[in-house]
Amino acid sequence: MAALKQARLDAGLTQTELAGRLERPQSFVAKYENGERRIEVVELIEIAAAMNADPCKIIQAVREAEG
Fold it and tell me: Does domain 2-66 have CATH number 3.40.109.10?
């Protein structure tokens, strides 16, 4: 999911750093960023909070990318 990856990069975080904040393995972040795993709304909110990002902006970026 490109929007979540971009939000992570904008926050200046590596996958490992974000995973640490989420108390999850780095592979969790890698899998949703690579499209191997879908995330639930609750997870999106948790991920956005860990990056100090607005989940609504992430959703908007996804909508814009899908055209």
Answer: no
